[in-house]
Amino acid sequence: MAHKLLIIMVNTDPRNGEELGAPFFQASVAAAMDYEVEVVCTATAGSLMKKGVAEKLHVKPGSPKTVYDFIRDAHEAGVKFYCCSPNLDLFDMTEDDLIPECSGIVGGAHVISSVMEDDDTKVLTY
């Protein structure tokens, strides 16, 4: 049985808030079930790792809970968040611009090696 879940957020568009709840909620649930969980935000979803972005987004219009609240909840449950390295250039960011819940920057090799070489990892993409 796998003990690690890798969630790759590549197709999730932060402009569509309703798309953002499920990946963060499922990451929290998996962490609460004692799985090691990593969320890699890349492409447009990479902007969520930039300070100030997720704080302005809501999964449901009118909800007091922001997308950043979902990220913090998942992080508190043990989820590790990563920003994909090309997003620094794409969104004019430096490492200092990343939210505190972001554990760092990873490249494509991290994702590929986790998927191809780690038999203990299952992958979900959003």
Question: Would you kindly provide a written description of the structure presented here, covering whatever features stand out?
Answer:
The chain has a single domain (about 5-125), classed as 3-Layer(aba) Sandwich (Hypothetical Protein Ychn, Chain: A), CATH 3.40.1260.10. It has helices at about 20-30, 65-75, 85-90, 110-115; strands spanning about 5-10, 35-40, 80-85, 100-105, 120-125. The chain starts with a strand and ends with a strand. Strands 4-3-2-1-5 form a 5-stranded parallel sheet. It has 4 helices and 5 strands. The chain is α/β, with parallel strands linked by helices and about 130 residues long. Helix content is about 30%, strand content about 20%.
Keywords, separated by commas or semicolons:
126 residues; alpha/beta; Hypothetical Protein Ychn, Chain: A; 5-stranded parallel beta sheet; 5 strands
CATH fold node name:
Hypothetical Protein Ychn, Chain: A
Seen as an oligomer or otherwise, the chain set is single chain
Number of E strands:
5
What is the end-to-end distance?
22 Å
Largest sheet: 5 strands, parallel
Q: Radius of gyration, rounded? A: 14 Å
Mean of residue pLDDT values: 95
The count of helical stretches stands at 4
Low-confidence stretches: none
* CATH-level-2 architecture: 3-Layer(aba) Sandwich
**Strand order, largest beta sheet:** 4-3-2-1-5
Overall shape: it is: globular
Can you give me a brief rundown of this structure?
The protein has about 130 residues and is an alpha/beta fold. It is about 30% helix and about 20% strand.
